[in-house]
Amino acid sequence: MTNSLISLTITEALKGLKDKKFSATELVSAHIKQVEACDHLNAFITKTPELALKQAAESDARIAKGEMRVLEGIPIAMKDLYCTKAVTTTAASQILKNFVPTYESTVSQKLLDAGTISVGKANLDEFAMGGSNTNSSFGPVENPWKSSTHPDKKLVSGGSSGGSAAAVAAGMVMASTGTDTGGSTRQPGSFCGIVGVKPTYGRCSRWGIIAFASSLDQAGIFARNVEDSALLLQTISGFDPKDSTSAQMEVPDFTGLLKQDIKGLRVGIPKEYRVDGMPAEITAVWDKGIQLLKEAGATIIDISLPHTKYAVPTYYIIAPSEASSNLARYDGVRYGLRVDGKDLQETYDLTRAAGFGKEVKRRIMIGTYCLSSGYYDAYYTKAQKVRRLIANDFRSAFETCDVILTPTAPSSAFAIGENDDDPIKMYLGDVFTIPASLAGLPGISVPGGLDNQGLPLGLQIIGKAWDEVTMFKTAYALEQAVGFKDVSPLMKRGAA
Amino acid sequence: MSIDKTTVQKIASLARIKVTEEDLAYYAPQLQNILGWAEQLQEVNTNGVEPLLSVSEIACRLRTDVVNDGDKVDDILKNAPESVEGFFVVSKIVE
Questions:
Q1: Which residues of chain A have pLDDT under 70?
Q2: Disulfide: which of A27, A166, A292, A496 matches A481 by Cβ 3.0-4.6 Å?
Q3: Which residues contact A66 (CB under 8 A, 6 or more apart)?
Q4: Edge to edge, what strands does the sheet with A443-450 contain?
Q5: What sign results for the dihedral spanned by CA atoms A151, A153, A159, A165?
């Protein structure tokens, strides 16, 4: 039997399992084989094949008894920012390299309860801080796609959920979890030619997700098509008393409402997203997306989000400030690395110096500065005020439109090492994803086409708060119209 | 605003991160650049704008003040670098 099981959609796989065309053990084994074949991508920090096969056997037993759960036997990857009971959880940091949680995050528990099978913990930028997955203390993740003009170059997978995205794009798993603080599921989704979705802030529980910037952090999903992503998001959504920011709201039927007509849907196009120096190919993919939605019956509305240019600097005050506070817990006392000094104070200093990487230290220090006495109002309070103006921009825009269509990122995947010593340039890679994050809105990246190098480019659909249904519906219509069928070379080879 | 090595040293001490002379030379210009770039926010008129503290607009939930968790000493200490008889151990603080 060939490894064609890795190219199934989740819906197809569930049907195949139910009809006993193949077993969960066969399905999981096929994916573990692909994980091994793609080892050089460095998509995983911890692999758990034995555990996965044990769970697959349990899934087969359930299927035999007719007790199949909603995602029974589906192989997934878990971003190594989710605490998983008895499985090492590192946040890609040396400070947590030996941390073994004694509890399971709410989101990963929901996925376990639904029958999914995790094959391992996916690589990421340390503490989810980055847009290239080159800030991992376990090494960078390589994108499974190759540039046709520079095939020798190793490309970034995007970040921060780079391992999760690469694993789905290379056919190592059928879906994966990410987290999204400023674009960390949408941008890697774009770079890897797959779907990356972030729901409304408060839709999913953050309990057990290692905190970066709590007012922005939200769980997310990667999959190879919109329907699969909706299925997974459905599973992880919902109120959790353990997270005071999770919303006590009904979760609509995302998958059931996916295939509705978009006739009359009002799609907003923000003029501020036509930034200087954007590659013509990205503008072309965007314009094509606009045209396709129009042909599908949508009405195109020009909108303005006037404070867009301030979103990235606002984010790079708020997120580091919250990170500086959140990461104060890594003191070498209760868990994590400890480097002993001559007294407790020096133990803290040495532990944190040895445990955190460059970008994490940079952000902690920026945040510490912005929150320090005498600067708090000028930086942190000011940024929170501009954040309200950014949120208000969206609120006004949504009076005239139902969803917003933009490019996901201002570039396709770049080479590993590029931009590494230019933090601001790296930060600007999130220019299109950060505004929606600051406003707490749901966003999804759908493949829109390939650039001149044969690399994927994503289109982002931003929805109103709590209206993932319209976002998914638009994404599905766009996906059908674009008809993106390309897969990464590694996936093609694995499935052959 | 100017971020020199002395300022970085002060920030690093507040953040409890030991930095070397080399680190100071590396971070000073970077922090200067990033914070200088973020100063563009000053050009935005925010008179009368309330800071946005939470996007979710969910009122803080209350719960009954009862014990609903506990008896997890072993779990809590499991990842501790050092522990003795149910306590975390750190180096001596008081002489």
A1: 1-3
A2: A292
A3: none
A4: A44-47, A117-122, A75-79, A175-180, A218-223, A195-198, A443-450, A456-463, A403-407, A266-270, A299-303
A5: positive
What CATH number is given for A4-260+485-495 in this structure? 3.90.1300.10
Give the one of A248, A348, A423 whose C-beta lies nearest to B16's C-beta. A348
* CB of A242 less than 8 A from some CB of B: no
ipTM of the complex: 0.95
User: In whole angstroms, what is the distance from residue A236 CA to residue B64 CA?
Assistant: 26
Search chain B and give the residue with CA nearest A421: B30
User: Which residues of chain A make contact with B30, given a CB cutoff of 8 A?
Assistant: 362, 423
Cβ A156 vs Cβ A134: under 8 Å:
yes
- Alpha carbon distance B2, B37 (integer Å): 12
For residue range B36-81, list pLDDT tens digits in order. 999 999 999 999 999 999 887 777 788 889 998 889 999 999 999 9
Q: Residue A191 and residue A456: Cα distance in Å, rounded?
A: 6
Based on the residue annotation, tell me whether A20 is a catalytic residue of this protein.
Answer: no
Q: What is the pLDDT of residue A419?
A: 80
Which class for A453: exposed (0-12), middle (13-18), buried (19 or more C-beta within 10 A)? middle
Task: Give which of B30, B32, B34 to mutate to test A binding, by max A Cβ within 10 Å.
Answer: B34
* Interchain proximity B15–A353, CB inside 8 Å: no
Q: Which of A59, A160, A324, A488 is catalytic?
A: A160
C-alpha count within 13 angstroms, C-beta hemisphere, residue A4? 7
Closest by CA position to A195, among listed A480, A409, A475, A6? A475
Give the other-Cβ count within 10 Å of A217's Cβ.
Answer: 26
Average pLDDT, chain B: 92
Per-residue pLDDT tens for A181-206? 999 999 999 999 999 999 999 999 99
